[in-house]
């Protein structure tokens, strides 16, 4: 399972295969500004 670290928050999260970084951030409770609305 892929793992990502969101900096500067220092949050480490496992990602589901095929998930986007935005999906992983949301699941980990990390807020990321996204003008595209997640599309």
From TrEMBL:
Cross-referenced InterPro entries: 2Fe-2S_ferredoxin-like_sf, Beta-grasp_dom_sf
Example of a GO MF term: iron-sulfur cluster binding
Signal peptide: none
Protein name from the UniProt record: 2Fe-2S ferredoxin-type domain-containing protein
